[in-house]
Structure formats: structure tokens, C-alpha cells
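Sample intake sheet
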Amino acid sequence: MQRGYPVVPGFVVSAQVLRQFLETLNSSESLVADLPHSSLHLDVANWRQLQEVAGRLRQEIITASLPSQWARTIFTAAQEWETSCLIFRPTLAIPNVPTPTQGMGNISGLLESVFCPCDEEAIASALKRAWSQLFRARSLLYWQRAGVNLQKINLAVLVQPVENAIASGILHTNPSGWEIEATWGLGIAIANGEVLPDAYYIQQETGVVLERQLGNKMLAYRVDDTPLLASWEPAPKSLLTVDGNCLLAYLLEETKQKHYALPEEYLQQLIALGNQLVSELGTNLTIKWTIAQKTTVPKLYLTQVSAPQSVITSLHFLKGLGASGGRVVANAYVIVNSLSKPEQLPKGVILIASVITPDWLPLLQQVAGIITEQGGLTSHAAILARELGIPAVVSAADATTLTQTGERLLLDGERGEVYRIKNEAGEGVQGRIASGEDLELNSSHHTITPSFHTPVTPHLPMIATQLLVNLSQPSLIEQVQSLPVDGLGLLRSELMVLNILDGQHPHSWLLGGRRAELLELWADKIMQFARAFAPRPVFYRSLDWRSQDLPSLSGGLPSASQSMLGERGTYSYLRNPAVFELELQALAVVQAAGYNNIHLLLPFVRTVEEFVFCRRKVEQAGLTQVSQFQLWIMAEVPSVLFLLPDYVKAGVGGISIGTNDLTQLLLGVDREQGQLAEIFDERHPAVMGAIAQLIKLAKAAGIPCSICGQAPALYPEIIDRLVQWGITSISVEPEAFERTYQAIARAEQRLILAAARQQLGEL
């Protein structure tokens, strides 16, 4: 017990122990010989070098001998708990950490807990594995970009017993209301995102449960070698996977899935403990809890309590849709009149506006985060933020009226929440809060509980499905081109050229006699991408603008109604082909420079006649004289479902499914309206059925079928079906690369396993 609280016991292996271990490493490796005093000044943009260095460092640490008395000391202390399983929780302290660079604020998940059996050999291995995470590729990338010197990092490890649990979860406390998450078994299922936990919304003053939401809990975790003899948990019928250490995941019986995990009596105990902690530590806490079944009487324990070192004065005073991941702390900059694009913005602010249109892109290059009152997950603000790699929350009602310029905010792009920050200690807190630095109950030092996702992942499995990226900003080429991707699946021309138009619509350039100048700039931009990805393919999507998307660039553009669709896509080329002809000439210039990897993707094609018109323009520009050239269309207008064979006969060489517009048109929901987010769902049976049909039609016609909308990145679970249906390639934003790659690998492995089982069954 600590301060009378029922906490899980534990002890800390201090940071000094790690330093002693590194200093005693006997290695001929020059990289290792200087540890822990080396700053490891790496070229983190060199993906291969980063992977190689990280792999060598981790291998040296994991294979080195740990002094036997260290493991014996931990084992002896752990034996008092009479447990068969231990958890090693790495925790960080970084004194005087500088402000992380843009996009590097969220490091939750940078270090992961390690489970192991309670024996000396396993303890030694687990401790080294926990330490080695300090030198993973993703960790080294973070330290370099955040300007953190390795010598300043203190890594301690909290050791605790792991016992079987009836239920586990998290309590979030805040002045406006509490939220409890709960699942069956150990809490690792929540941490891994493998279940949708039950949710309880609590009124703090009365302890009354205002609302309950039953989650989706198909599996649970328990300690591997403990017999399930207690009445609270029947023996699992289907064991899924054994953790390499001491955990077992199993499928829950269907009846259990339909019941709430947290028993009523423990719910009230948890609320009482929460009130007690709030009175001592403050109003904003994250409390991890478990109901352990160690004896005949289950008992509620607290496994971890975290309170921010800086005071968050109101838990998500703004709530919207998490549109782009990451957390950042910065000053607010409020734009009251979003109809007029500002001339400039202060650097490093969180921009708050009613709505953001694509022509704001040049301004967004220097902001730290974005909050909009309107828009959904596929809105312009969301897409721009994801491509630029900055956190964003959209559909946050009344954001411009509830916030004032200059306020200190924490923006959480994962949860879709915005907090007000007050620093009671009077010291700079941006770096610590952006990193998620917490005060932990079980130890006396400040720690960071990390999860920073980066595309740099060691030992990626081979995949057969092509994985491409969506991109439009040349400034991001360097960090993306070294990724193991198969090419650029969507080069958004309308975003690419905004940085060269100097605030004028392309028509204004043409009317002003500046065609040659614009052509040179346009071709140069395309060539940067073609050169960087060669010989990998680059699919350039021609302009797809509506007049309301570019209110500040309206000069010279024929008037159009402010409809949801507008005169967009290939239809606009029929109305006025001048800019489209310039695009084609720019592509021809790139081809003439020797880059045969550039291809054309036509947007929002409504009819076969529109495609034929564009194909003739392409032929007149000479693009088809290069044998490698491919002419594709976006499959986003539902008419393609019925006319694809006709399109193929007319010369379509491939299709790319745009799930954003396809969903909008199939369900009749404006993708820009965040308040309709519950209806705008790419997983709707009608949308998934349309995607399946398009893939089937493409296979029958013998043409490739890609998908480049947001659906695979937002909902990786649909990748199973895409791979099963035979999708040729999947194209996502760079931030979604890693999780998409892993999802494709898992999907392909499941198909291979199913085929093998079927073959064995037929023998």
C-alpha cells in the first residue's frame, strides 16, 4: 500500500544500473565502445544506415552477459510475490528536454512493456530487451529530430508481478466528467488496441453512471501457465496465440462478449478510489486498474496512476474528430473569418478556423497543429494535416468562439481532444507535455510513457500486394523516398502546384501571357517526384478543383455554383481545356527528360465520353509514344461500377478507387460535414460491396486495380478483405505506411495459411 491505496507492488531498476551495464560492455564495435557517452550523430534520413546502426546496437546489448547477481537480485525480490509472470515497464526522464521538432511531439509507444516468466534467465533477457529499446531505429530517429542528447536520457525499469485478472481497464478523471474503460482479463488487450472496451461515463460529484456503452471484446489475456480453475473464468475453448514470454490470448465465449466486464461492486470501489486520488493529486488523472483473482476473494488494485506535471485546466474543453495523429503543445491562433485567407501566420502555432480550403496549404507548412469547426476525416483540412504530418482535430464545434489567440493548448490528434494548459511551476513545458510526461505513483521520478509511430520498422516481412504512398509536397520527398514502398500512388496536382501559383489561379497565368513560365515551374515540380522515385511508378492525378476550394485563387476562373460537386474532374476539362493541356505538356517535358515512370490518373470521370476526350488530348501531347506510359482513371463516381468494361475498351489501363468520393456519392453524405461523420463510413456494406465489385471487374478485364482513398489508413481492418478480393496495390499517406504494411502482411499470411489448411484437408 502507498498512502492507503491498493497498488500492485513493484520496484525500480534505476537508470544508473543501465549506465553501469553499458560501461561494462566488452565489444570491439566502435559504436558500442563509447556508450553511454556517445551522442550517436546519425544521418537519420538514411534509412538503411539508421536500421543498420540500430540493429547492431540492440544486438550487442541483447547478446551481452548481464551480471548474474543483478538477475538474481531481481528474481529473489520477485519471488516474494509468488507469481509466475513479470512485467518490465520502461520509463523515461529527460531533464531540460528541448521543444521537439514539428511532428515529433507524440512519443507514446516509443518504449513498450516486456513480459517474462519469473526465472533468472528470462529476467536477464527481459531487462536487456527493455533497455535495448532505447536504441531502436524509431528511438534513434526521435532523439535526433527532437534534439535530445543520449547522455541526458535516464531510462529506469519498473518491475511488477502479473496476475490473472477478472477485468482490467483505465479511469480517466477530469472536471467535466469521468470515463472508465473496461475489458475482460488483463489490460494488455486495451493497450494493444485489440478490443473496443466497455465505456462508463460518470458524474464525479454523485458517482452516478450517466451512460454505459457495451464494447466489442472478442479476446482476453491471461498468464500462460496458471490453470484456470476459478469459477469466474471457464477454460477457453479457442487459444489464439501464446506470447513468447508468459501470456496467453484466448477467445471469449459469445455469452461473455455480450456482458459488461466490470462488476457493479467494483465499479463503485473504483469511483471511490478515483475521488480519493483526485483530492490529493489533482483533477486530471489516468488510473490503470485491475481486479485480480489471486485469492478466493477478488480484489481491486491500481497498477499505475499518472498525473501531468503541468496542469491541464479542462479535459478536452474542445472535442472533435481526430483527423491526424500526434500531440503538440503551442499557442492558439484563431481565424474568426475563414472566408478570407490570412496573408501570413505566426510560426509554430495551433491554427483554429471554421474551415480550411486547399489554397491555405502554403500557410500550413509552418503551423504546429490544426483545429477546424467543420469537416470530416476526409475533408481538406484532414488530408492536408496528414500529408504534412501535423496533428489535427476537425469538427470541433465552436472552436473559434471558445478559444482566444495566445492561449496555451495541448492538441491530441489521436483522441480528437483539445486541452487548455496552465504551467503552475512557471517553467517551459512544451517539450514535456508534447512528449506525454507523467508523474507515476509507483516511483519517485518523472517518467514518460511513450508510443511514437514512425515508418522505420526493422525486419519488415515480404509482401506481394504493392504498397504505394500519397504525396504532393516536394519538401517531404527526402523522408519518404527511402521507405520500402513500390512507388507514388497518388500525386495530388492541385496541392503540388499551390506553392508555385503565387496566389493566382492557373487561368490568370495563361490570360496574363505567362504560360511558358508556368509550364516550366509545373514540369519542374513533377520532375522532382519522378526523379526521386525512379524507376518506381509515379501516378500524377490531374487537377480536380471546385471553385469553392480555391476562394483566394478565383481570378480568371469562370463562375460556378457553390455546389457540393461543382464542375470538377474531367468535365471541367471539356468546358475549358487550356490548363489540362498545360498539364499534359508538363508531363511530356518530364518524359523527354528521360523519366518513363510518370503516369496519368484522371479524376472524377463521369462518362466514357469524358474519358475519350481526355485520351485524345493525351495522344496529341505525345505521351502515349512512350510504351511504359499508363493512362488510368479514378473509380469514384458510381457510374464506373456499371461502365468499367466500356472504359477498358476505350483505353483505360487501370483504375484507382477513391473511397472518399465513392462513399460520399453512394451514401449521399457530404464528406466535408463533420456532423455527419457517423453516416460517412467507408465500411458501409454498400461501399464495401462497390469496392469488391470494382476489384472483380478489373481482374476480369485484366487491368490493375489500386485504392488510394483514406479508408485503408483509417480502418486497417478492411485490408483483409481488399487482399482477399485481389487488390493490386494500396496507396496511403506516409504516416500510415507502417501500420498498412503490417496489415497487408498479416492479411497475406492468413490467406496462405488458409490455402495450406485447405490443401492438407484435401490430401
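Comment: Residues 612 and 650 are 7 Å apart (CA to CA). The chain has a mean pLDDT of 81.
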